[in-house]
Amino acid sequence: MGKELWYLLVRGVFSKKVSAMVNFYVHEEELGSAIRNGRDYAKVIGIRDFLLLEAIPLSCDGNFNPLEDAVGLSHNVYVGKEMVPYQPKAGQSSFIYPTGIVKSAENGLLELPGDIDHFVVSKPAISRHFTITVVLGNDHLEGIFFHLLGLIPRIDSFTITVKDYCRKKNKAELFISHTLTTKVAIVGFIRRNCADTLENGFVEMSFKTVAGTNCFTLDDHKVLTLKTTDEHLFKLVCASLKFHDIKESDHVHVPWIENKHWHYRPCKSLDRKEFIKFLLQEGFMPCKTFASWMEQLLQGTLIC
User: Fold this and answer.
1) Would you kindly state where each structural domain of the chain is located, as residue ranges?
2) What is the average per-residue pLDDT within 167-177?
3) pTM for this one?
């Protein structure tokens, strides 16, 4: 894969009272690496918080040379000469996308308010399941994810779906752990490998009980969904979300899905091949292999 010239629209925070919209241009193969390099060199011009709003590889956006109006900060990082002052309204912060997802710059800036976090519930009609869908920005996603995972009384099955990192093929591989058998072990694994799991825009995770009473998922758009037949758990999760100031809404609104967007993995994460190898080393099995293994185990024909 050759290097792209990535355009990054950033809200650069210089101090509590001073921030500006800043254009960065970074030569890198992948968006995650471009973000890391842009953030590192933003410190050179006094930016202390590098808040990514949009991105696009300029090969997708016409043939022009934006570097003519940019200043080089390194051999592959450039910053636009013009900065537009920006100040959020009093008492309101801007929405920051979850790590692993960002809006494409193709359709112009979509400024999002900081209070976009919300959840939506549906109660059983034909299905026996209560459903809670939770949409969160970067400020709340990690904390709420681990909090909700902690509320689920039991986890019997932990699966990770690895999508195609290039997004050119409709390819996904599903892996199930047969070694992480307790909630404490599962949470520890995710915390140790956040860049490859929670922050990876090409990864989905699912946590289930064998009886099908609970299913908690994080999809590759960083949307959380809990399906449960346990009304007590349903009420507990709703109350907990409200306690954390996550508002209940009538409908799910995920702006980055409704507009063109990019998935990426953090630069400190493993590439797809390395990550799959790591999962296998950590006791995960491809689901087809696991199903065969379970069948042999139940039949008493498995040779250990």
Assistant:
1) 4-87, 118-293
2) 80
3) 0.87
